[in-house]
Amino acid sequence: MDVEILRRVALFEGMTSAQLRKLGAALVEVQYPISNHIFREGDTGTSMFIIVEGKVRISKMVPGIGEEALAILERGQYFGEMSLIEDGPRSADAIAHSSCTLYELDRDKLDQVMFTDKELAYVLLWTFVRTLSTRLRETNDKIRAFFALSSFGPR
Hints:
Elements: H1 3-7, H2 17-25, E1 27-32, E2 37-39, E3 47-53, E4 56-62, E5 66-73, E6 78-79, E7 93-96, E8 100-106, H3 107-116, H4 118-150
Antiparallel strand pairs: 1-8, 2-7, 3-6, 3-8, 4-5, 4-7
């Protein structure tokens, strides 16, 4: 496990090398060939992923249209982290856009690490809060823009 990859992951910023090593010990390396689903929208999620090599496409199926790509993620980026916080279903598909190597972090393993290192838990949870707050603000801005554009359309 490469601590330097973890150091570049925004979710883990502010962690010490020792904390990153503890977190790294909980990771499992997994590989996916191109076009394979890592998970599907609606699946029960119990882990998040960090991209070590390759690219991952996050997308949703739109009825009557097909797949709508929401993002193409690359090395050092992460996805599926909501499943570490809540028990809800996956909100989108994650597909190997190219052959990829990922680190998988299971919720139970993360809970064990956070239980044994309260400072790591504090840093990580505040980073989660900031990440979710930023995403909520971005979603609000998109909704506001959508309604602003729709008010100019035909009536």
